[in-house]
Fold this protein.
Amino acid sequence: MLLFVGLGNPTPDSENNRHNIGFKMIDAINIKFGLSKQKPKFKGLLTTGIINKKKVYAIKPLTFMNNSGICIRELIEYFKIDVEDIIVFHDDLDIDFGKIKAKFGGSSAGHNGIESIDKFIGKDYSRVRIGIGKPKVKTEVSDHVLNNFDKDEMLELEKITNNITNSISILIDKKLDLFSSTVNNK
């Protein structure tokens, strides 16, 4: 079993925020692989299905970014999913817009959603860090992540989600370096 987690905030005005890129990824995976209809469970919107002959759960936590770990812990305890079989999709300020870096474990780098997950389940899971770029002035970080993507970025975001979903089998096999290089070279 695998669990895909997309981080974001559940309010309608947050839908196209840079911080909600994880939600966008779960939506793209649901569509591409025909996962079940989203159902509210475990303080999130849950879908299920089969990808590459593996049972997959995908969730968008509704607990807001800073409390994402609450949702994840409840779900993995119920379905007995190993922490190592979790892949979290989230935004990353330290990566240029459109670039992807997949890694296992490590620091939260100040990302509140990742800090919450680490607090509730530890750090032994994979992450797909999707670059949203940094604002020129550090004091503008909060505004940057909570602002919507512009029109050009939305078009680019569609390419990014397509590249990731088209390479999902590499990610499922946990070949994180190969996954990163594959999606960044498309």
Q: What stands out?
A: The chain has seven helices and seven strands.
